[in-house]
Structure formats: structure tokens, C-alpha cells
């Protein structure tokens, strides 16, 4: 199926939506979650995870440039907003984690106050990433119902 292929046979006018692009965003969102999980134990993976999510956010920005029906524009905009807000929270969380590692100078960065605030921000960020991923995934699922 092409990225903007018409969906549905029983409509007078076929529905157009950038399905492949949204699927790629879902893959990058769930890759972010997977890398984040291991990044808690191995902090350099946080930067790769952040890169995956930034790329998913860039792809979400590209969604607005693609042709889609009016009924999907609101959902596409909501996907974009959730990704953009989450990327700022995620950058702040990774910066706090980096500051805690540099300040402590050891692997036990999460034991001090700055490390605890970094962990809290990371958990908030991952909940927001999970929300963005589920939002994109349910959008793909709702098209086929």
C-alpha cells in the first residue's frame, strides 16, 4: 500500500491518510521506549533514545505537509503537539541526568537530589512518549475499523 493510498471501498470518495509515515512514527516511538528502558541502567542509551524520539517528532512535523482528509487533520495535529511537547520534556530529563552523572562522577548518579529529579523527569518523559506512541498506534488502528 502506498503512503497515501485511498482506503476503503464502500465510500464515494476514498479516504486519504499518510499511513506509512504514521507507521514509521509508531516504530520510532516504541524504539524510544525500548532504548529508554535499558538507558536507565546504561545512560549513554538515553541519547540514542532521545535521537529516535526527535526523529519521530520530525516525522510528525512532516505529517502536516502530507495530504489527508479534514477528519484526520485534528488527529494528525494532536500527534504533532504530543510529540513536540514530549521532546522538550525529554531533553530536560536527559540534561538533568547528564548533570547528575557529571556532578556525582560515578555510576551512582541517582542517589542524590539532582539524580532523583532526573529520574522523576525521565519517568514523566517516558509516560509522555508512551502516550504519543499509543496515540499514533490507535490512529493507525482506527483507520482500519
Average pLDDT, rounded to a whole number, is 76
- Gyration radius (Cα, Å) is 18 Å
* SS-based class: mainly alpha
Which series of helices and strands comes N to C?
HHHH
- Relative strand content: under 5%
The global form is: elongated
Separate helix tally: 4
Number of strands: 0
State the major sheet: none
Poorly predicted parts: none
Cα end-to-end separation: 17 Å
Tally of separate domains: 1
| Percentage of residues assigned to helices | over 70%
Keywords: Membrane, Transmembrane, Transmembrane helix
Protein name: MARVEL domain-containing protein
Features:
145 residues, mainly alpha
Explain what this protein looks like in three dimensions.
It comes from Odontella aurita. This is MARVEL domain-containing protein. Keywords: Membrane, Transmembrane, Transmembrane helix. The chain crosses the membrane at residues 21-41, 47-65, 77-99, 119-140. The relative contact order is 0.15. The mean pLDDT is 76. The chain has helices at residues 19-39, 44-63, 70-104, 113-143. 74% of the residues lie in helices and 0% in strands. Helix 1 (19-39) runs antiparallel to helix 2 (44-63), helix 1 (19-39) runs antiparallel to helix 4 (113-143) and helix 2 (44-63) packs antiparallel against helix 3 (70-104). The chain is built from four helices and no strands. With 145 residues, it is an all-alpha fold. The protein has one domain (19-143).
